[in-house]
Amino acid sequence: MVTSPNKVAVIEDDRPTSEQLAGWIRAARPELQVDQWFDRDAAEAALAREHYEMVVLDIELGRERHAGVALINAINKLKAGTPVLVVSAMPAAVYRGIMKALDAWDYLQKTSFDEAEFIDTFLDILRAARARQAPAAADPAPEALQLDPLWQRSPMWRGQRINLPLTAQRILATLYQRAPQVVSYEELYDVVKSGRTRDNVRKHVSTLREALKEVDPSFDAIENVPMRGFRWAGPR
Question: What is the C-alpha separation between 26 and 46, in angstroms, rounded?
């Protein structure tokens, strides 16, 4: 297989949608080469031939209702670790869990997202994939808090998994990475992405604290800074 850095694939049978997604990617990251495929056979051949940094695909291709599932399975068989972002009209409430079980990295439902959300999700996955492939300088000592940068696995606190929704995971990662600085409400709005109000941020932080207290009743590492935001005050 030929290694192709800075190369991504968009697999979508609807040409206007394919052009829109490819155009958004090129505008956000002009250095990326975007290959567009419109049917399962052509896409499957390309996946066997090329090593893409990332694949964006639809579940339905032409008359094949679950062609995207077959393509994800083909990617997994190659064991290249290629991240997959699924963009489909199928209801997210039903299919997000199915796609996660197949090792897709994220799922966006058509008509329910805009360019900004697509690009944010796309770039988050791309950065996480590149970070995973970067060689580690040394094996660090285990930390009290362990985060998965891909958000595919639950974070761990003192060796125990924490059951958290994705938004709460992002807030936790932001607070932890910015410690010991205070992270303002306004900065956390970018993490929450929707429902950008202080009340909503506080609800997510409350969910986060409750989940951590379930595995550690003495947990108190998230500090509320009145009128400003929140701060990670725990071990690093």
Answer: 20
The token duo for 53 is 């940094």
| Cα–Cα nearest to 47, from 68, 22, 17 | 68
Rounded Cα gap, residues 50 and 137, in angstroms? 29
Q: Going from the N-terminus, what domains does the chain have, and what CATH number goes with each? A: 2-133 (3.40.50.2300), 145-232 (1.10.10.10)
Handedness of CA 31, 48, 127, 57 (dihedral sign): positive
Rounded CA gap, 130 and 127, in Å?
A: 5
Q: The pTM is what?
A: 0.57
Spell out where 21-100 has E strands: 33-37, 50-51, 54-57, 84-88
pLDDT of residue 213: 92
How many angstroms separate the CA atoms of 146 and 161, rounded?
Answer: 9
Instruction: Please tell me the predicted confidence (pLDDT) of residue 134.
Output: 61
Taking alpha carbons only, the member of 12, 18, 4 closest to residue 40 is 12
Q: CA-CA distances (angstroms) from residue 224 to 89, 93, 211, 216?
A: 40, 33, 17, 19
CA distances from 69 to 35, 48, 74, 110 (A): 19, 16, 9, 17
